[in-house]
Amino acid sequence: AKKQGRNNYQFYSSDLSQTTIERIDIERSLRTALQNDEFLLHYQPQVNLETNKIVGVEALLRWHRNHSEMIPPNRFIGIAEDSGFIIEIGEWIMQTAFKDAVRWNTGREEPISVAINLSSRQFIHNNLLNSIKHLLKKTHCNPAWITLEITESLLLSDSLHIRKTLKSLDSLGFRISLDDFGTGYSALSYLNKFPVSEIKIDQSFVQGIADNNDHRLIVQAIISMAKSLGKELVAEGVETAEQAKYLLDCDCKVVQGFYFSKPKTFDEIDI
Ligand code: C2E
Ligand code: CA
Ligand code: CA
Ligand code: CA
Which of 96, 170, 244, 269 could form a disulfide with 195 if both were Cys (CB 3.0 to 4.6 A apart)? Predict the structure, then answer.
């Protein structure tokens, strides 16, 4: 038993250093990823269930490390945030999404909203507003075409700087969307203290619709709360017709998920 314990310990400790090595490795490759042009945005359509039309897309970052291996965002966004690279990468994401929003929306009657995920680190960095204004000018993008997705944790910090930044972004004409809603410390009071125009129902609740009565109740509660506060709604992670039907029956019209489309490149999206 003693010997086994020692082997286990060795296994555990080499496992830990494996994680550390991977982190260091990813951080090192991130350093050159931008200049090597290794990033790409994919876009996932958001569909209005009543009209069957695409009303928006969410930009999702893709990283082809060394132009070969695909590293999913969950494996590198956190590292990019901790190391500070997210500031530069975030600017590339915004610039690319702004340009694509211009390509989609120029001459179009009903605008397509392009949603961009913003990390809290980008807000804490005090240059966000200036760099956004600069990018708007450079790309000729209309802020009304852009939705900025933030998470509840950003609102929880409740700092004056963040409140002011969100207010300015709202005044510029951006839409603000609260991502992963229901998974954080969703205090209702936050919703009216900040200029949030849209709530995204987290995919964990959507995926529980078929077999989890609590999740059905949570989905209903979020929808009725959003309505009474005058917020728009998007449900994410919709994978089945049944989930889509339930959401429409609850009067949540805009949905996003694999049932409709995976994230795709700009050229692959037909709008
Ligand atoms: P998120 O913002 O909640 O994005 C939704 C994630 O769910 C995406 O994963 C998307 O591909 C996936 N998804 C969409 N439909 C379905 C579905 O029907 N079923 C399931 N199971 N999943 C679905 P992805 O692209 O791997 O991104 C993961 C997370 O990484 C994102 O979660 C977001 O937090 C972060 N992320 C992605 N792109 C960016 C970015 O440009 N900037 C920042 N700061 N974070 C990003
Ligand atoms: Ca998101
Ligand atoms: Ca989400
Ligand atoms: Ca998320």
Answer: 170
